[in-house]
Amino acid sequence: MILTHKILPVDLLAADAVERMFGLMDKYYGNMQRDNFVRDLARKDGALLVFDAGGEICGFTTYAMFHTEFASGPLSVLYSGDTVIDERYWGSMATTRLFTALLGDCLRSAPHELYWFLLSKGVRTYQLLPLYFRKFYPCSGEATPPREAGMIDYLAELQFADQYRPHSGVVRFGAGGDYLRDNFDRRLKSGDQRHAEYFYKINPGYRHGDNLPCIARISPDNFQPIVSRWLQTITRYEFSQTFTE
Predict the structure, then answer these.
(1) pTM
(2) Which of 150, 169, 216, 230 is paired with 144 by a 20 to 30 Å CA distance?
(3) What are phi and psi of 53, to 5 degrees?
(4) Do you find a cis peptide bond into 138, omega within 30 degrees of 0?
(5) What single DSSP character describes residue 84?
(6) How many Å separate Cα 87 from the centre of its chain?
(7) Which residues are bridge partners to 61 per DSSP?
(8) What is the Cα–Cα distance from 120 to 127, expressed in whole angstroms?
(9) At 149, which helix (H) or strand (E)?
(10) How many CB atoms sit inside 10 A of residue 208's CB?
């Protein structure tokens, strides 16, 4: 398969691209509201768009970069928003490789220690963490260290205020939240099941729209070896690149 990507600022997204992005989200997630999607998109810095061989958007992730103070020190944060990939490419290493471009670009431009902060709506999003990182939280088989636990609480409360439930560790948007549609809620049947089962255990409300806030330090010494190899093929400010599988 041949896939390409572009990383674009939000204000450069064409209207038809935004409609395609919303259409993908609406296909896989119930209770999607277009106004909410557009409003949330406007608060982001940019989007990584994934294109199929015909040039159609087949996936994307939106993101924002911000800087804050945590534990008496500066912190840079890559916050991932809506993320979706068409089911034709689920499990594709080519699609997974494309997201490395965003991690590498943010790492090179971050002025401080950099963390990825993302909400996992479903297990496929959560499974990106062990694919990319040696250490991430929360994770199976290891208690979240106090600093990282505090960081999750801090960032979740900073972004979502009282929609974050610290006792259960999830973000709950209530009646206005979206959720993975039942017909796409397919339990993974291959690969390492530890992380998938852990996600189901600590976020049982994902079917109803509960989101699991997660963090990982974006640093060369925390990347999985395959990610380090991918990053060597990506040049800063290279906004379009083709990957095959």
Answers:
(1) 0.89
(2) 230
(3) -65, -25
(4) yes
(5) E
(6) 16
(7) 48, 83
(8) 9
(9) helix 146-160
(10) 12
Name the token pair of 118: 């993302």
Tens-digit pLDDT string for the chain (245 aa): 688 889 999 999 999 999 999 999 999 999 999 999 999 999 999 999 999 999 999 999 999 999 999 998 999 999 998 889 998 888 777 667 778 888 888 998 899 999 999 999 888 889 889 999 999 999 999 999 999 999 999 999 999 999 999 999 999 987 778 888 887 776 554 456 899 999 999 999 998 889 999 999 999 999 999 898 888 876 443 434 443 44
Q: How far apart are CA 6 and CA 51, in angstroms?
A: 8
* Strands, E assignment, 164-239: 164-165, 170-171, 179-180, 212-217
Report CA-CA distances (Å) from 170 to 27, 92, 203. Answer: 24, 28, 7
Amino acid at 12: L
